[in-house]
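Input record (one chain):
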Amino acid sequence: MTQRFYFDLVNRETVISDPCGIEASDLEAAVVAAEAALQELRVTGEVHEFDGAWTLLIRDECGTLIQRLEIMAYLGVIYLGGYLLGVFLFLSEI
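The corresponding structure, as predicted from the sequence alone:
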């Protein structure tokens, strides 16, 4: 059974809410989708629009915050080739 997950980008001054979300089988699949989106931001160069203060929040169907990714820290680890280390260090359950 799939669930809907929402991804919000936030910093101290701005919240960019995801009104549509994605369907995923579980939280792990949603995190994989979030990681792919962050990698795409890095590849396309859009990551320069995000300074170190941006965080990606993952919410469930009820709006409950269930996961967070500190974007620049996460992408820095990915860039340095520490993909698995990055997942363990920068994904924190709420």
